[in-house]
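Translate structure to sequence.
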């Protein structure tokens, strides 16, 4: 079905504006017709990714758990004392959800690892 630009604008003014607006564009870098190939490509999203302190804190249910995580990471020298103090200060002032929404079980599976 073909429709001229002027008629399209009159029927769908907001959609037309969105299509002409260059701010909300999404690039499509490839198209995959084979599901297995697509799933394999997506599964590499977290390849080589190493969770950091924030990732662990986002799995906590409360501030006590988060503080234990921070202490544990500091004790193992995975974070330094200054960073641990900043994390604890943010935890006390703003709470555990200030680090981001809770990461539920299966987060990485849903977000890209198959």
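Result:
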């Amino acid at each position: 079905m073909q429709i001229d630009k002027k008629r399209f604008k009159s029927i769908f003014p907001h959609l037309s504006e969105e299509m002409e607006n260059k701010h909300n564009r999404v690039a499509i870098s490839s198209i995959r017709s084979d599901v297995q190939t697509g799933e394999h490509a997506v599964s590499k999203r977290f390849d080589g990714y190493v969770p950091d302190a924030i990732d662990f804190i986002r799995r906590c249910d409360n501030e006590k758990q988060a503080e234990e995580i921070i202490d544990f990471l500091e004790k193992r020298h995975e974070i330094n004392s200054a960073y641990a103090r900043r994390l604890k200060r943010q935890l006390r002032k703003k709470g555990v959800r200030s680090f981001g929404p809770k990461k539920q079980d299966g987060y990485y599976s849903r977000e890209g690892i198959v």
